[in-house]
Design a protein that fits this description.
Protein-Tyrosine Phosphatase, Chain A; globular; six-stranded mixed beta sheet
């Protein structure tokens, strides 16, 4: 542990690590469970009942989707908090510290209350840990329950809850759900959810069950799946076209986002980001969801929308952490997310354009840091890049109980793609290699795995500071960019 941290804070870090290591290591089952969706839901509901159903102690909005659900959930929680409601946000996975999963009114849960919630959940988790017939992840149920307990203890009005995988058979069950939000649907987690978009959409449509209103992005290929589910469970389905809801206007440096919402009407707010892309799309979906909650007594205002944006970017989503060279972190871990990232970074380009046109559009050299977890086919990532990287740094995030490709394994399908390829044993070594290879005018992009992004982020925002200050943006300098404070050891097991 960092000896420069005050003794009191070291105690908080020890409490955090005790709880986090139990949840993320001790109860993690390395052998895969037999697939039993109904048994999984039964186990989750029983687990929650043993805790007094903390997940039903507050009104909730559940967000699902292949791409954009984490950002949409974050924007929505910020908007609801700015509307004057006490608000909680649960996202998964986390970037740097597990308390990111328990956001309360603009801050992550403090280590002591988070540890207290863990102590209340642990006896139930221990019982399920010993049961060989449990069909659900004890790690996942315990992590969620700690967040639910924190929310219940705080007496929040609203929780925005990001779905883990799919929705219909996800670990998130039994919410007092008042609205469901479904972001873009695409191909991901195909071994779990199916290998075609309609089947995957069917899984995501499962979160509409019991909700009086559902909002989904409009996609003609999968829309009938959502219509069928809405008809079956009797909820209203509201089609959202993000590109029609929100547009940018004004000159660079004075951008305004103009939103057209069914109930609030037209709202114009400052847009502090240079780009639009997926960031504006996700914000448009979140704003529409907040607008739909008027029926639940939420008073959405233009000021609340502006306040949500003024907080800054969603951590790890097209986040600029340094200039000279520019370093961007983005947790694009599937081809759909990667395409959205490319569309935002290189607007108006396609992978079919010639290298001469690519150079004309962007004179910066591209230094790419890449890692992949699970069974990701990294050649599919490469296929969506409008240009090959000048330097490619391959690495592997430090994980427990999850598969991650080694740098050598990644190098095989990507052989010959980049001008120069480097291999690094860890994310922090990878970013140092990338910065050494980059000139001040270059673009350094870190992507391919949310775990890579989180562990790389420690270079600019040490995880201890994120934990203790309860924010992903501790120590910002006068320019608004993070102050580089050097490396910190990762809390990942």
């Amino acid at each position: 542990m960092n000896n420069t941290i005050p003794m009191r804070d070291q105690g908080d870090i020890r409490l955090y690590l005790e709880a986090r290591n139990y949840i993320d290591v001790e109860v993690v089952r390395l052998e895969p469970r037999l697939s039993d969706p109904d048994g999984k839901i039964a186990a989750v509901l029983e687990f929650n009942r043993n805790l007094g159903n903390p997940q039903a102690a507050f009104r909730s909005v559940q967000v699902a989707g292949t791409s954009g659900k984490g950002s949409t959930a974050t924007w929505l929680a910020r908007i609801l908090h700015a509307c004057g409601t006490t608000t909680g946000l649960h996202v998964s996975p986390y970037l740097q510290v597990a308390t990111e999963k328990t956001w309360l009114n603009g801050r992550y849960a403090s280590p002591k209350p988070w540890h207290d919630a863990f102590l209340r959940v642990r006896p139930v988790a221990e019982r399920y840990r010993e049961r060989s017939d449990c069909k659900a992840s004890v790690h996942g149920m315990t992590s969620l329950a700690v967040t639910y307990e924190c929310f219940r203890e705080a007496g929040i009005d609203w929780a925005v809850v990001e779905t883990g995988v799919g929705g219909r058979y996800d670990l998130i069950q039994g919410l007092d759900r008042r609205l469901s939000v479904i972001a873009d649907s695409g191909l991901d987690h195909v071994k779990t959810l199916g290998e075609d978009r309609k089947t995957i959409a069917w899984h995501k449509a499962g979160i509409m069950e019991g909700a009086p209103c559902a909002v989904a992005t409009y996609d003609p290929e999968v829309w009938p799946v959502f219509e069928e589910q809405a008809n079956r469970c009797g909820c209203r389905l509201e089609a959202v076209h993000p590109d029609k809801v929100a547009t940018l206007c004004g000159e660079p440096g004075q951008r305004m986002a103009r939103l057209h919402l069914p109930r609030l009407g037209v709202a114009e707010i400052p847009w502090p980001f240079e780009d639009a892309g997926f960031r504006l799309r996700n914000f448009a979906l979140a704003a529409t969801a907040a607008d739909a909650l008027a029926e639940e007594g939420v008073l959405l205002t233009q000021a609340a929308l502006a306040a949500a944006v003024a907080v800054g970017p969603v951590p790890g989503r097209m986040e600029t952490v340094q200039s000279n060279p520019t370093v961007i972190l983005d947790a694009a871990h599937n081809p759909q997310k990667m395409q959205a990232l490319m569309d935002s970074l290189f607007p108006g380009t396609t992978h079919r354009q010639s290298r001469r046109r690519e150079r004309a559009a962007d004179h910066r050299r591209l230094v790419l840091v890449l890692a992949a977890t699970g069974d990701r086919a990294v050649e599919e990532f490469a296929a969506v890049f409008p240009r090959a990287p000048d330097v490619l740094v391959l690495t592997r995030p430090l994980l427990y109980g999850k598969k991650a490709s080694t740098p050598d394994e990644l190098a095989i399908p990507l052989h010959g793609w980049a001008g120069r390829t480097l291999l690094a044993d860890s994310p922090l070594q990878a970013i140092e290699a990338a910065l050494s290879a980059a000139d001040p005018a270059d673009l350094v992009l870190v992507t391919g795995s949310i775990y890579l992004v989180g562990q790389t982020r420690n270079r600019w925002h040490p995880w201890e500071k994120v934990l203790l200050q309860g924010t992903s943006f501790p120590g910002l300098g006068p320019s608004g960019l993070p102050v580089c404070t050097g490396s910190a050891s990762s809390p990942s097991a």
